[in-house]
Amino acid sequence: MVTPPSTPAEALPAELADATRDDRSLRRFLHGLPGVDRVGLEQRAAGLATRSIKKDAKRWAIDTAISMVDLTTLEGADTEGKVRSLCAKARRPEPGYPDVPPVAAVCVYPDLAATAVAALRGSGVRVASVATAFPSGRAALPVKLADVEHAVAAGADEVDMVIDRGAFLAGRYGQVFEEIRAVKRACGDAHLKVILETGELASLDAVRRASWLALLAGGDVIKTSTGKISPAATLPVTHLMLQAVRDWRDATGQLRGVKPAGGIRTTKDAIRYLVAVHEVAGPEWLTPELFRFGASSLLGDLLMQRRTQLEGRYSAAHHVAVD
């Protein structure tokens, strides 16, 4: 059975509350969502991607994108030293240019969260930790919750969970809902980012259903991908998720965020996503509280393009530190 939201802060309008009453109601709601017009969505995304932004607007967009980056290291060979180095980069992305904003967060595995917390203390940069058997999501719920509790106990401000794609694709929406709700409770005051792994969801209709399912279950942010499979983030999928949080705001008055992750490497890419945020969701979402880039390699190009805007000439890639 689906457990309805119980906290006053998550009180929902009648139609949405009814959707969380039981498995059948949840299924009826999700399958009653409008079908996605793939051609129209792709044309809209491609059209907005041609927008040209120059001069002061481009400099603003670059700084805004820097402030939205989640610097990430999620490798088996990660060390405390590597995490501390990444945190130094997060605090001061380009030494010698003190007006460059810090990034939004540093994302690590739970066992390295305490190291990141210590390195970032007082900086305003948040610590995010992946959890719930990232990136597969293949573990029993008690194991997933222990993973979350470990990260939160270490001081993580944000938790990035992965949904059970197998359960979702099999139509066990209630199970996925309950897992997200349980993880949300385990997060306490930490924000919850729900990774849909959209490249495995088979259709845009499924992405729309997964987005609404995550929002109904209490996710603070819906995230495209783990970055471990291809395709990861795409503009059409991000448009669809931005539509979901916009419609959620219209229905509930609550603001929820979006995080595209994986495959966003250039300043031109980042600006295309910022244009989508502005045009699809609205200018309220142009803040690190509500929009993030999960793209560590993006930062180097943003810094090079920023220098170009200030100095009028291109810098070589080796002039910008990547770690």
From TrEMBL:
This is Deoxyribose-phosphate aldolase. Belongs to the DeoC/FbaB aldolase family. DeoC type 2 subfamily. Keywords: Lyase, Schiff base. Pathway: Carbohydrate degradation; 2-deoxy-D-ribose 1-phosphate degradation; D-glyceraldehyde 3-phosphate and acetaldehyde from 2-deoxy-alpha-D-ribose 1-phosphate: step 2/2. Its EC number is 4.1.2.4. The lineage of its organism: Bacteria, Bacillati, Actinomycetota, Actinomycetes, Pseudonocardiales. It comes from the Bacteria. It catalyses: 2-deoxy-D-ribose 5-phosphate = D-glyceraldehyde 3-phosphate + acetaldehyde. CDD domains: DeoC. PANTHER family: DEOXYRIBOSE-PHOSPHATE ALDOLASE. It holds the Pfam family DeoC. GO terms for molecular function: deoxyribose-phosphate aldolase activity.
